[in-house]
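U., I forgot to send this yesterday:
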Amino acid sequence: MTSTRSEQDAVANSSLAEIRDVDIDDVLAYLHADLKRLPDYLDLYRRYLRQRWDVYELDFTTDAVDWQQRMTQEERDAFIAISSGFHHGERQVEIELPVFMLGGSEELKIYMSSQIEDEARHTIFFDRFYREVVGMPGTTVEEVLDASYPYIGETFVGPFGLLACQADELRRDPEDPAARVRYGTTYFLWIEGVLALSVMKITLSYCRNRGFLPGYYTGFTATCRDEARHVQGGMRFLRDSVRSDPALLLEIHETLRTILSMNGAVSRRLALESLGWTPEEVRRLMIRQLSMKLSDVGIDIPPDIQEQIQKIEPELAGG
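Result:
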């Protein structure tokens, strides 16, 4: 996954109208290009100000035709199944991240305010897609969320249930460094760094290869560019935390053990073959996303976790 400097510049500087022509692989390469040096929080905040986009500028007219007339029922079912966790994940972190923000430095608080606004925008992106393209019922954001909830699998309930418990820990003491690292590992490393980016790669490559859903492709590619800031900011937090107190590395290890133990505990499988992905391809994608984050940031993990990573099951939910 490599790209030229000009391709990375195109990702960084494209308007919403222009980002429709950007390849998802270039966005993922853009994300990883900065992981070794990790921009500081105010750099990321300045980038947010340049890259903000208006979710109400998206046009879903062609998407509705594609959905109703060009996509098969199998494709629609798989697309909804893999996207619904993302829909609910955006809403969950929109309301939980303020708790994480409370215990950070002033620079982190300023940056996190931008991520919270991003998460709200992404929630509206999915709300519009489900209303205007999928045709889910509901007149309020909550009603549309309720309508998409039955499509969610256990891979959403597991990591996001864990994240909700960790958010409750932070509510009791927002400045507890161990609790902050546990939350950061679940959210920034696993949910954003592995699950979300894998969902983006799968759905956006499907849209690009088939020429379907241009409004979704545009908005979700812009969302992925936002995620680049989120993952870089989150990985900087984890790296700085471990540098400040090396004992916190054990919190990362224990949280990963818990997450990886839950992986694969599902009662239904996503039929992603209709979107052009085999289970083995999804498994390799997830392993690659996790391994790249750990390697680029320099987070060492013991052999037992390495073995767990190699046994990752190809089940997904986003956030």
